[in-house]
Amino acid sequence: MVHTPLINQLLAASDVASCCVSTTTGQITHCNARFVRLFGDGKADSVIGRELVALLEERGWSADDAIGPTADDAPAREIRLRHKDGSRWKVSDAPLAGCADSRLVTVVHNESAAHRVSNDDLHKQSALLSGVVELFSDGDIAQAVEQTLHILRDFLDLPAETACWACLHEDGERRFVTSGSPDTGHLSACAGGRCKDCVVRSLSSQDEPQKATPYVRRGADQTPWLLIIPLVTENQVVGVLHFSLERALTIEPALTQFLQAVGRSVALALDRAQANALLRRMNVTLEDRVARRTRELESLAVLSQELGTARSTEELIRTAFAHLGPAVKHDVVAALVVTDDRARLFLQSNRPLSRLARDVAIADVLKRYARIYGPLPAEDLSLRQFSGNDELITDADAPPTRRKIETLQSAISGPFLRATRTAPRGLLWISRERRKPYSESRTRFLHTIANQLGMAIQRMTTARDAEQQRLSRLVQRLPAGIVVCDAQGNVLLTNPLWEKHQRIIAPNSQQRLTEIAGHTLQELLESSSEEPIEVHFGTRPQRTFALRALSTEHGRELAVTSLEITDERVRERQAARQERLALVGRLAGGIAHDFNNLLSVILNFAQFLIDDLGEDDPRCDDAKAIHQAAERAVDLTGQLLAFSRRELVNPEVLDVNHTVGDLEKLLRRLIGDDVDLKTELCPEPWPVKIDRSKLEQVLANLAVNARDAMPDGGKLVIVTQNVTLSDNQVGDDYYTVPRGRYLQLSVYDTGVGIEPSELQHIFEPFYTTKDQGKGTGLGLATVYGVVKQAGGYIDVNSQINVGTRFDIYMPTPKGATVSHRELRPRRDTPTGAERILVVEDEPAVRISTARILRDAGYFVQEAGGGGEALALIERGEHFDLLLTDVVMPDISGIKLAQSVLEKSTSTRVLYMSGYTNAHLGDQAIAPPSQFLQKPIVAHELTNRVRELLDLKPVKHQASARRLTNA
Question: Under 8 Å CB-to-CB from 803, ≥6 apart: which residues?
């Protein structure tokens, strides 16, 4: 890098000749005034940036010859020029010393007779000037000045013992550099300010110091003459070079200019060396500042990270205090944090505080806070004191070996940065015993930490508020009631669901909660620690609540949760009841199967006796009695099957009003004249899908049950109405009606009513509230089974001496049309002559069934099981119809039918079973026209057989597929 002031000084020093400085490529970068006048048009811009060769050609110069360097220290180039006016010139180049990059100094001399100057002197002066400048490049100013004195003494050809010295002015002070043995009187005169040669001249040349020139004057007695060379920069005289002379020295103008150039070069070198030294000192200071700032930034980065993980305001304050210690020396640190609810002062000291010092610290913190935010009442302030990681040691607890902090002399503070009006107010404060005030950088660092602390507290406060709002919204939406109260029971927080529950479980606890459902809060807290407490309210329906109490860690607050579990308990009781009824239903179905086989035998053989004996035989009445008893047993079995929902039904879409109207006369005969029957039927009832006979049975059973409940007469009312439930309707323990469209069929009486303890058992089979011998206990069980089998729901409400009401909810199918009953003409017993194979493992049932078919004219072959029947088929026997039991010990009826159909595709199949078609499960028969329910009755058997035999022939594949799907 080129030092421009240095080059300018060199060019000014060579004012006796035309000089320029150029790069190695020949481009001119600097020049003096003589060079501009010689090669330019009076302005430096006309030559700067040009090449010397081009300028020579433009100005009419011609080269005589060129001489290369003759020795190692000779110029790099010499050119002899001839101008068009006849004058002769010489151009010589030399490298510029003291510069980092390569530059050439070009000197143009007029070698005409009037301006000839000795080339040797010019070369010698140029080399000396370059050498002097190079001396100051290593940074040792005193050594460079001393060597400069030696060089000038030799150049001036002064004796070696000549005393010489320099008086340098640095930052208003003087420094002397000596060579030889100058008279101490001169040095003391310079030091005392009486040296007019260096002081007065510099003062007199303050306005134009660059005009100061070397001169010779008479000296003191010891030194008659002195050579004075001022060291002048562009702005001031920075020093003086002194040479003692034995005699006066005549200084020619050329020498004056050279010495002046030397003085200026030395001054410039001194100035540059001093600037470099100052720069080095500034670099050291800057490095210290950068290192300190780096440590501060690293500390702030760690502080920011730790503040982000803090969980409480106290933890934030401790973290800020920990980072202040290594960065800013202090004895006491404090932080005042003011939020909407409270003001807290955190105080920490590295040694025990005296009470006076503590009071002074608190007062100064509050004073500084008041200047920014306004006064803070002292009674609203809570003090939290720390000492490192331990609590603050008080005066009484302080060890005698530890000196207390008695006074605080210096203090600074930084307020929190408040991004919003809701942000916390506060400041960070430090103090120490020393009087020396804190620097501006320490104050800025404290402000930065205070800002970070304020923002961290604001973030924590905002996050805590957001969390509280989120929890509050969550509490408001919880499916459980929640109430929070303090230790005295004062209600602090509730949610909407608690307000609903509170009206039932604690109606008088809007503001203060003392007890819930007869339990105190302490009892709830102790009893519900493991499982919640269940409390019940009301009777029909009974509402159940689960209560649990929880307390905070310190027992300051108590939370009570209430959850209504009425639906859960109802569903549990319903499930238990359904399971119990299902078990009874399976038992009833099994009993009905075996009983149907027995009834088939009894009914058929009784009918055989009646037919054989004739009406005139007295034994015929006995046979009829047996037949009537068996028929009542069939009804009983049908009720068992209806309860178990395994009876064969034929559902159809009905208008319930028509069914009630058709049955009204029969019902009046059933209930008697002392019971008033009324019907309240809606104009356009929604249709329902149910077996017509089963619906009539339901109405008959309910009417009989009502008649028995009104021995002295009363009123029986049947009501129909269309209802739409928008929500699930929870009744008693027995049903939950889903929302939807229903036809409600209600039957109520004004009888004696049913005890509440008996209501939960009235739908169970064989359970009756009537006197012994007056009821089978299957009437209401049958009603329940029929309703559930049709997809409906039933509810009962009863009050003693008021009456009982049964409400039946029947779903209404969409888009269904009402079926109308068709009256079929009665036909005689059909007969035939086809071949029939009867397969039944019960001998009595098989014999009676075969006899009925033989009496009707059919050829009947009997088999006691599936294996025996297959043997007949294998022998080549052909049958028009296969009548087989479904459930048999060896081969099921369905597998037997498949084997038979593989041999003969024209054979018809009719199944019979004591189980219903629905009870058979995977063995159910499709279509139902191929199934005959036991007990076997003669006319039903012969009708079904004849219907099947009269059907058109079907392909084997179709029959096999139907049976396989079944």
Answer: 709, 714, 748, 749, 750, 751, 753
The sheet that has 714-725: what strands, in order across it?
675-680, 714-725, 740-749, 803-811, 793-799
Distance CA 861, CA 260 (A): 158
**Residue 128 is inside which H or E element, if any?**
helix 119-135
Q: How far apart are CA 158 and CA 156, in angstroms?
A: 6
CB-CB neighbours of 380 under 10 Å: 10
DSSP 213-255: --EEEE--SS-SEEEEEEEE-SS-EEEEEEEEESS-----HHH
Q: How far is CA 844 from CA 282, 601, 840, 847, 862, in A?
A: 128, 6, 9, 5, 12
Distance CA 282, CA 660 (A): 115
Q: Which whole number is the average pLDDT over 654-683?
A: 85
Q: How far apart, in whole angstroms, are the C-alpha atoms of residue 706 and residue 767?
A: 16
Q: How far apart are CA 878 and CA 906, in angstroms?
A: 10
Q: Which residues pair with 737 in a beta bridge?
A: 729
| CA-wise closest residue to 105 among 231, 40, 12, 1 | 12
Other C-beta atoms lying within 10 Å of the C-beta of residue 305: 10
Predicted local distance difference test score (pLDDT) of residue 141: 79
Q: Return the structure tokens found at 315.
A: 């933890």
DSSP 511-557: SB--EETTEEHHHHHHHTTTSPEEEEE-STT-EEEEEEEEE-TTSSE
Q: What tens digit of pLDDT does each residue of 90-108 get? A: 788 877 765 656 778 888 8
Q: Which residues, in sequence order, are CB contacts of 424 under 8 Å at separation 6+?
A: 337, 338, 339, 416, 418, 454, 457, 458, 461
Sheet hosting strand 104-110, strand order edge to edge? 28-31, 18-22, 104-110, 88-95, 77-82, 62-67
Cβ atoms of 243 and 158 within 8 Å: the answer is yes
Contacts of 727 by beta carbon, 8 Å cutoff, 6+ apart? 739
- Per the listing, tokens 């070069």 go with 265
* Three-state secondary structure call for residue 39: helix
Please tell me whether residue 878 adopts helix, strand or coil conformation.
coil
- DSSP 8-class letter at 424: P
Residues paired with 865 in a beta bridge: none
φ/ψ (deg, to 5) at 213: -125, 160
Say how far apart CA 633 and CA 592 lie, in whole Å: 10
**In the numeric block, which tokens belong to residue 495?**
């949610």
Residue with tokens 């014999």: 847
**Long-range own/partner contacts, residues 486-490 (CB < 8 A, 24 or more apart):** 486/556, 486/557, 486/558, 487/555, 487/556, 487/557, 487/558, 488/512, 489/513, 489/514, 489/521
Q: What is the pLDDT of residue 236?
A: 76
Q: Read off the pLDDT band of 539 (50, 70, 90).
A: low
Band (pLDDT 50/70/90 cuts) for residue 835 is very high
DSSP run (H or E) holding 470: helix 440-477
**495 near 476, Cβ under 8 Å?**
yes
Q: Dihedral sign for Cα 595, 597, 598, 603, please.
A: positive
* pTM score, whole prediction: 0.37
> Which residue, 581, 586, 505, 651, is CA-closest to 794?
581
